[in-house]
């Protein structure tokens, strides 16, 4: 998948624990872990909004488009 989730980077930069973010957003730590690993197919806008509010960031800070080598052929 060409969309990369940078949630781990944002958490580290802000010295925030996953547990605290999950509690604020209202999702389980297991679901947050799946999101951090990029193993989800989608994320609700309200979830993304709460993550951005807690981390004081923009959605683009959390998500990156990286073209796969297979896509370039």
Give a verbal description of the structure.
The protein is mainly alpha-helical and 73 residues long. 52% of the residues lie in helices and 8% in strands. The protein is built from five helices and two strands, in the order βαααααβ. It has helices spanning 7-13, 18-25, 29-36, 45-55, 59-62; strands at residues 3-5, 63-65. Strands 1-2 form a two-stranded antiparallel sheet. The longest helix has 11 residues, at 45-55. It is globular and about 40 Å long. The model has no long low-confidence stretch (mean pLDDT 91).
Features of this protein?
two-stranded antiparallel sheet, 5 helices, 434 Repressor (Amino-terminal Domain), mainly alpha, 73 residues, single chain
Overall shape: it is: globular
What can be said about the biggest beta sheet?
Answer: 2 strands, antiparallel
**Which CATH architecture?**
Orthogonal Bundle
Helix % is 40-55%
Give the tally of β-strands.
Answer: 2
Output the structural class. mainly alpha
Distance between the termini: 15 Å
Question: What is the total number of structural domains?
Answer: 1
The fraction of residues assigned to DSSP E strands is 5-15%
Sequence of secondary-structure elements = EHHHHHE
